[in-house]
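User: I'll paste a sequence; please echo it back and then give the predicted structure.

Assistant: Echoing your sequence first, then the prediction.
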Amino acid sequence: MSTKIYTAYKLVKAGDLWRLVHDIRIKATKNIEDKLTEMYELHVPHVLPDSEVYKKRYEELSQDLTPEQKDRITRLHITSKVLTRAYRINCTSLRRNPYNFDVSVAIREYGRGIYLIPYCDWTMGDVLNFLAEEPRLVDFHYQNQTDKPDHISEMDWYKRERVWNGMDKNGKWKDLLILDICSWNQYFELDPYHDLVCEVLKDPAY
């Protein structure tokens, strides 16, 4: 059976776990919000101003707003609906797509070590990349279907093999803590829609 742990880390000091969890959540949340904002800006220009949903929302907005403000807010509103629906559909889909906004870190204990595997895909694919530079973590990836990387010693590679295979044999894959940073239930807290609308209302350029 092949073992493919493409990205994984070991905690240097077990006592750092909870502070690290806190710091991961803070940094990753900021990265996720930035990514979602990019998704908004990618979709906003493609909203059709001659569509019925656009016209309806545009007319519902206050007449105190400028046409530019109303246009921008209407586009943001429609984009919010599109992204939310796309993410919800993704949550029950087996296919990979850009609307998978799930981000999490799985944390497992084996022997005296604590091991982390980040999970994020496509649009969110790099929001946890900062873990590679985190001084409290060391790389602990492992694959047995390919040759050992040159920069990893035979002893270290064998240690990784023993840990990951040991988890599998002892059922440790079922004993884990999941740090959910973005999930469907959390999305409303991370969606930048209201912040983007506030920017429009405060910016006289609109």
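The chain has a mean pLDDT of 94. Residues 69 and 201 are 7 Å apart (CA to CA).
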